[in-house]
Design brief:
The complex is a heterodimer of chains A (219) and B (219). Chain A is of the alpha+beta class and 219 residues long. Chain A contains ten helices and four strands; from the N terminus they run E-H-E-H-E-E-H-H-H-H-H-H-H-H. Chain A is 51% helix and 6% strand. Chain B is globular and about 50 Å long. The longest helix of chain B is centred in the middle third of the chain and has 26 residues. In chain B, helix 4 runs antiparallel to helix 5, helix 4 runs antiparallel to helix 6 and helix 7 crosses helix 9. Chain B contains ten helices and four strands; from the N terminus they run βαβαββαααααααα. The chains are: A alpha+beta (219), B alpha+beta (219). At the A-B interface, helix 3, helix 4 and helix 6 of A face helix 3, helix 4 and helix 6 of B.
Chain lengths: 219, 219
């Protein structure tokens, strides 16, 4: 086996952090589009009936955030020691909570409830809700605060990690529902991180390549 | 600092996998009931205003599954190589999906919708749904299949890891809603794993100790 291979739908979606991490690490990879019929009928390779799936010289695995951690570990984007890895974990887990809320409370609900988008903005994005009573307050505020602890411009003092990549994609997902300007006004440093990551030479090259799917969410 | 410290509510809840992992690894730890006011106002120590929080000689961190991975990495419960770590990731991520579904589709709805319990069972536990159209099929069946790939009785050939501990607690959560007998009938190998883990000498000693909270969900 020469190059690693990524299997997913032909969208950015939940595989985009993986693609960006591979690009940032300078790892050439292949992509193969799958469809629902394939992933539902092959439990040996798709044990949860889901994609992405990632195959390299060490693994044949599923679960997007598991794959991201594997790629991060293997290719030097996961932090240098346990303390840095802990920071990466906090960000990845915090992002997972937020992406779940975005999909459930905003995007899916907006189909039947026109007020869902603004309700989501108020509860999760608006900086004023950061002190609110709900356990899941304004997660963007929390991520912003974690970013501010570092002086490197990335979550880790030592530089780029999959934490930054994951947050860049979280901002991308949110730009499917809210304008860039509106998000940047609330969370300028998170948007600046998004821009910084996307402007890294290897990532910019990937974004201009055919490997980068045109659509974020629906193919 | 001598012993690590875990801060949480006085329930098993989202901290129980961490407690079990520390016990399994033979790591003595202190437990402190969280000051709810501090949790909501002290953004430096509770960046997401959530618990558990875990402090040792290397980290002061939050996010239950991030803490679990840190403890696993540090104390030898995360697998021996990238391939084993990938297996652990698949199980942890698969369990997370199921926890979310249990809470959202079942536990939160039960009060208003008595049919929610059986609807959840049909969609997530009943193996007949494993071939179903939903992305989140019968996760218990998927986890059972992953366990069957190993001959050790644990998810990894090399033995106990936080994958086994996480699935054990996931079953414990389900036993708050469904009887042990019913779950054991549907997922006998997972229930056997649960029994095997809880019978390990260090874990059994922890379960008999004052560090083990009596209640799963409500203190």
């Amino acid at each position: 086996m020469s190059k690693p291979k990524l299997f997913y739908f032909s969208i950015q979606g939940r595989a985009e952090p993986i693609r960006l991490a591979l690009a940032a690490a300078g790892v050439d990879f292949e992509f193969e589009a799958v469809d629902k019929a394939t992933i539902k009928s092959d439990p040996e390779h798709y044990p949860f009936g889901q994609s992405p799936r990632y195959v390299d010289d060490e693994v044949d695995m599923v679960q997007s955030m598991g794959i991201l951690r594997h790629v991060g570990r293997k290719h030097g984007l996961y932090g240098r020691d346990h303390a840095e890895m802990a920071r990466v974990e906090e960000v990845i887990e915090g992002c997972s909570d937020l992406v779940t809320k975005l999909i459930m409370e905003c995007m899916l609900r907006a189909k039947s409830d026109p007020g869902a988008r603004e309700a989501y903005w108020t509860a999760r994005i608006d900086s004023a809700s950061a002190g609110g009573p709900a356990t899941f307050g304004a997660h963007m505020a929390f991520l912003d605060r974690l970013l501010a602890r570092s002086s490197s411009g990335y979550f880790l003092e030592s530089g780029l990690s999959v934490a930054d990549i994951n947050v860049a994609v979280v901002m991308l997902f949110h730009m499917e529902a809210f304008s860039r300007e509106r998000l940047a006004e609330q969370w300028p440093s998170l948007m600046a991180l998004h821009d910084r990551v996307m402007a890294l030479p290897r990532i910019a090259t990937y974004l201009a390549s055919p490997m980068h799917p045109a659509k974020v969410i629906s193919g | 600092m001598s012993k690590p410290k875990l801060i949480y509510f006085n329930i098993q809840g989202r901290a129980e996998p961490i407690r079990l992992a520390l016990a399994a690894a033979g790591v003595d730890f202190d437990f402190e009931v969280v000051d709810k006011t501090a949790m909501k106002s002290d953004a430096e120590h509770y960046p997401f205003h959530q618990v558990p929080r875990y402090i040792d000689d290397e980290v002061d961190m939050v996010q239950s599954m991030g803490i679990l991975r840190h403890v696993a990495r540090k104390h030898g419960l995360y697998g021996r190589d990238h391939a084993e770590m990938a297996r652990v990731e698949e199980v942890i991520e698969g369990c997370n999906d199921l926890y979310m579904k249990l809470f959202v589709d079942c536990l939160l709805k039960i009060k208003e919708d008595p049919g929610a319990k059986e609807a959840y069972w049909a969609a997530r536990i009943d193996p007949a749904s494993a071939g179903g159209p939903a992305t989140f099929g019968a996760h218990m069946a998927f986890l059972g299949r992953l366990l069957a790939r190993s001959s050790s009785g644990y998810f990894l050939e090399s033995g106990l890891s936080v994958a086994d501990i996480n699935v054990t607690v996931m079953l414990l959560f389900h036993m708050e809603v469904f009887s042990r007998e019913r779950l054991a009938e549907q997922c006998p190998s997972l229930m056997a794993l649960h029994d095997r883990v809880l019978a390990l000498p260090r874990i059994a000693a922890y379960l008999a100790s004052p560090l083990h909270p009596p209640n799963m969900l409500f203190g």
